[in-house]
Amino acid sequence: MIPPRKTRTITVRDLPIGGSAPIAVQSMAATPTCDARATLRQVRLLEQAGADLIRVAVDSERDVEGLRLVRAESDAVLSVDLQEGYRLAALVAPLVDKLRYNPGHLHHHERTKPVRDKVAFLAEMAAEHDCALRVGINAGSIAPEYAERFGSDRVGAIAACAIDHCGFLEELGFERFVVSIKDSDPNLVVEANQRFAAACPRVPVHLGVTEAGLPPDGIVKTRIAFEQLLSRGIGDTLRVSLTLPFDEKGREIEVGRELLADIEAGRFRSVPPSFFEGLNIIACPSCSRVENEKFIELAQEVQRATAHAAQQDLTIAVMGCRVNGPGETDDADLGLWCGPRQVNLKRGTETLGSFSYEEIVPRMLAELDALVRARAGA
User: Fold this and answer.
1) Are 129 and 94 in contact, with CB atoms under 8 Å apart?
2) What three-state secondary structure class fits 210?
3) What CATH fold (topology level) applies to the domain 280-377?
4) For 222-270, how does the pLDDT look when each residue is reduced to its tens digit (9 = 90+)?
């Protein structure tokens, strides 16, 4: 049930992606990369689960040193998430097989430099060190120029951003790259990837529903997107992003393989029309950007504590880091993004304050109940 894909084949070291190559399944280490021992343990756990490729994040030179130790003890196929410091590519490219950058983060440094020049630097580093690239576009961190141009049309913004960055790279003569376009809404993921694939049919695509949240809902959301896209021949590599304890990250690989096997065999799952009605809890997957492991327990507690509001048409976002947390909670009715010791609480785009991990759930519930009462009164 997965038709032949039209994309070109690229390699990440010796791993082929695209074209007739098997669809690669990947995941991300959930520990700070500066903690080399913990990250190496994550890498080995994901390898044992059958990951084809493993991503880590680098946000500082301390992370680079941690990555250097991981690479010294592991031969895993590694991708690095450059976060906001795109110039770290010069230090990490010799240590990995693939560089991932988010166009929405390129404006943070050297703001007067054209984005195309920054992309040229990344392509140069990748070519010099035999790395592939991933252009990773996230609807929660849209590049400012696209947000201004498209306003509330998120699909148009992220699809246009992806198409433009493909143009930058191909004009530079660099074709060893894949593109990912992600959101927490599987329907938006389907629409944006279809639009991109129609415009750039030769570019390999990485699939994922970001912040899918806790199982089982996170698996259902991911399945919806993957069934719709893979059955159309869109998708060359994928990740199932679930909010899980660090020691259970291998489950992302297992679920990814299960979904692939089901779709290949024509075992599609329908969802009731009411699936997207009622309370929607989105939560990012535990990854190396998380600064406090309590984030995972917090997401689980939010799910339990809000059961009484299951019929309310509201969204609560629980985000684990300062990189994506502020922006990706903007569209939620209530947002929680976690720091090392405090959790920031938002109502829409308004910040309500920072609270300890012990205080945040009662405070969030008070805001939730106020929203419910306000809607009932309206």
Assistant:
1) yes
2) coil
3) Sulfite Reductase Hemoprotein; domain 1 (3.30.413)
4) 999 999 999 999 999 999 999 999 999 999 999 999 999 999 999 998 7
Buried b (16+ CB within 10 A) or exposed e, 119-144: bbbbbebbeebebbbbbbbbbbbbbe
Query: Residue 53 in contact with residue 98, Cβ under 8 Å?
Result: yes
Q: What is the pLDDT of residue 288?
A: 73
Every domain of the chain and the residues it spans: 10-264, 280-377
- Note whether 131 and 95 are within 8 A (CB): no
Burial 179-212 (b: 16+ CB within 10 A, else e): bbbbbbbbebbbbbbbbbbeebeebbbbbbbbbb
**207, pLDDT greater than 80:** yes
132-138 and 334-338 strand pairing: unpaired
Helix (H, G, I), strand (E, B) or coil at 96: coil
Query: Which is more confidently placed, 330 or 194?
Result: 194
Q: How far, in Å, CA of 44 to CA of 306, rounded?
A: 36
Looking at 82-238, which runs of residues are DSSP E strands?
Answer: 98-101, 132-138, 177-182, 205-207, 237-238
Class of domain 10-264: alpha beta
